[in-house]
Write a structure and sequence with these properties.
The complex is a heterodimer of chains A (about 270) and B (about 290).
Chain A: H1 2-13, E1 20-31, E2 34-45, E3 49-53, H2 60-67, E4 77-85, E5 88-89, H3 97-103, E6 104-107, H4 118-128, H5 134-147, H6 151-154, H7 167-179, E7 185-189, H8 197-210, E8 215-219, H9 223-229, E9 232-237, E10 240-246, H10 247-252, H11 257-263
Parallel strand pairs in A: 3-8, 3-9, 6-7, 7-8
Antiparallel strand pairs in A: 1-2, 1-4, 4-5, 9-10
Helix pairs in contact in A: 4-5, 4-7, 5-7, 7-8
Chain B: H1 6-49, H2 55-59, H3 72-103, H4 108-120, H5 125-139, H6 146-170, H7 174-182, H8 187-216, H9 219-224, H10 244-253, H11 257-287
Helix pairs in contact in B: 1-11, 3-6, 3-8, 3-10, 4-6, 5-6, 6-8, 7-8, 8-11, 10-11
Chain lengths: ~270, ~290
């Protein structure tokens, strides 16, 4: 297992000049006594979409929540190993989570806009970080909403409550809210699982556009989605990375029998 | 072969429906009981008190003569009392609720504190009166001042507001907090910008209902020894005062029957005040209806 991973990683380093944004080394995570992530080694490249697939309970959501340390909100969680984000270990005592999370945005499974106006939703992050100038905020709001491809739909009702929007629109508002903190990486935890097919398509197209400016890590239980939008895919099973490679390779000639079984629908 | 015999079901149908109607009627009567008693009470109070209810009644101090007696000192005293109670209990209770729900770790000690706050809400008011007498009136030598009574009343309603505020804070969905934390907001920013705005309707509704309880409470004031008849109103929170329930209690104890009607007029004022506060609570609840 270990040797396989090293080999895969070596292959990747030779494929281009892109820098890794996240380097995970020997990550282990426990919920109490439940060993949820086992010896994870994974490098995430910048300006790429990295998909994480796997059956329910395989640890894919746990892993993505570890990348911005949201997992620590659960009291019983313990970790070992390293996650290096842009040359700094995120578990370092001097690394403040607030600082990490201004660079690493997150979009959640269920659209979770605040019960505030659309404008206030988008301006939340910048305001949190001390921006008060109305003109600057206006610009950030417009830029973020345009970035999330929802500006034209909401520009005439920025002051109405975000709860009045449809589920798909709400999720794009959440993506815009995430863009408003001008992140480096965007983590997406099954962002389309609560959406209808048309909204899903819009979000998928959006992810494709966003990768020119951001590095995106997306957890999905939908294998077709991973195949459509990602550059690299990691297959998680029982808390381990079974295989991590270019998406084309994973979906055409997987090296591991278990990956093949999963993507051909034999389990999960 | 069907397990359910349709004829049998139909035969039983009317008796099942009859039982349904019977219980509906019983529960309607149960509801009616409380309403009828309340209506009788209101009718008696209004017919007795309405004659004494005029501007003179609102503007006069207490008096030996029923027709000259007024509620001014008690009304102003109650408002002074509420001013202290509202400020002290709201700040302490919301602070406690935020600490317990947001900051405190889920350990045994905090669990114990949470359980006991709920228990405290059930302690009789006369016990709080004794506590206030010992600590505020005697130990801190505040005597029968507005401050001593206000602090005692605050203690009395503190658990009620804490529990209401805790529930309101807990009802704010976790996803909203997560969204805020994920953007790099601190806990305090998340509390002030996300949790409290969403919890405010619940907190205010619970608080106002608790305040209306404080305005009608008599026992703690009796134990503290708050006077019933005063010919002046307090000029500061260190002055002594009298309150609406004390004044009403005093009038009902007088031998002259006319004073009982004066008491009814006082009750009307107290009820109007309560009604006003409860309407504010309902208004707030409807205005800021939670949308999640």
């Amino acid at each position: 297992m270990q040797t396989l991973m090293t080999k895969v990683n070596e292959n990747m380093d030779t494929t281009g000049s892109k820098q890794p944004v996240y380097q995970t080394k020997q990550l282990n995570l426990w919920y109490g006594t439940n060993h949820a992530l086992k010896n994870i080694d994974l490098d995430v490249m910048e300006n790429e979409v990295t998909a994480i697939i796997g059956p329910s309970g395989c640890g894919k959501s746990t892993y993505i929540k570890t990348l911005n340390r949201m997992i620590e909100l659960i009291p019983s969680v313990k970790t070992s190993g390293d996650i290096v984000y842009r040359d700094r270990n995120i578990f370092d005592k001097n690394y403040r989570v607030e600082e990490l999370r201004t660079k690493v945005g997150m979009v959640f499974q269920k659209p979770n806009p605040f019960p505030k106006s659309i404008y206030d939703n988008i301006a939340y992050g910048p305001r949190t970080h001390g921006i008060k100038n109305k003109k600057v905020l206006d610009e950030i709001v417009e830029k973020s909403l345009r970035g999330a491809a929802i500006w034209d739909e909401v520009k005439d009702r920025l002051n109405s409550n975000a709860y009045g929007l449809s589920g798909g629109q709400q999720q794009r508002i959440c993506i815009a809210r995430c863009l408003a903190i001008e992140p480096d990486v965007i983590l997406m935890d099954e962002p389309t699982s609560a959406l209808d097919p048309i909204s899903t398509l819009k979000v998928e197209e959006l992810v494709q556009e966003l990768k020119t400016d951001y590095s995106i890590i997306i957890v999905t239980h939908n294998m077709q989605q991973a195949a459509r939008i990602s550059d690299r895919t990691a297959f998680f099973l029982n808390g381990e990375v079974v295989e991590f490679d270019k998406t084309d390779k994973i979906f055409s000639t997987p090296s591991d029998k278990r990956t093949e079984d999963y993507i051909s629908g034999r389990f999960g | 072969m069907k397990q359910i015999n349709q004829d049998h079901v139909l035969k039983k149908m009317s008796s099942r429906l009859a039982v349904n109607h019977l219980f509906r009627a019983l529960f309607f009567l149960a509801t009616l009981f409380g309403l009828v008693v309340l209506a009788v009470l209101l009718y008696r109070v209004f017919t007795q008190g309405i004659g004494y209810l005029d501007l003179q009644f609102l503007q006069s101090m207490g008096s030996r003569f029923p027709e000259k007696a007024g509620i001014y000192a008690a009304l102003i005293g109650s408002l002074w009392l509420m001013a202290v109670v509202v400020v002290v209990s709201f700040i302490l209770a919301v602070g406690t609720a935020i600490y317990l729900e947001e900051y405190a770790k889920q350990n045994k000690i905090n669990q114990f504190i949470k359980v006991n706050i709920s228990n405290l809400a059930g302690v009789p008011s006369v016990v709080f009166g004794l506590l206030g007498l010992t600590i505020f009136a005697r130990m801190f030598a505040l005597g029968q001042s507005v401050l001593a009574a206000g602090l005692t009343m605050s203690l009395l309603i503190l658990p009620v507001i804490i529990v209401a505020a805790q529930e309101a804070i807990r009802a704010v969905p976790r996803e909203l907090r997560d969204a805020s934390y994920a953007m790099g907001a601190t806990k305090w920013q998340t509390i002030t910008r996300v949790v409290l705005p969403a919890a405010v309707p619940g907190i205010l509704t619970g608080s106002i209902l608790a305040f209306s309880r404080a305005i009608g409470e008599t026992a703690p004031l009796v134990v503290l020894g708050v006077p019933t008849i005063l010919l002046f109103t307090p000029a500061s929170i260190m002055d002594t005062f009298t309150a609406l329930p004390m004044q009403i209690y005093d009038w009902t104890r007088r031998p002259q029957a006319a004073f009982h009607d004066v008491a009814s007029a006082g009750i009307i004022i107290l009820l109007l005040l309560l009604l006003f506060m409860n309407s504010v609570a309902v208004f707030i609840r409807n205005k800021f209806q939670n949308r999640f």
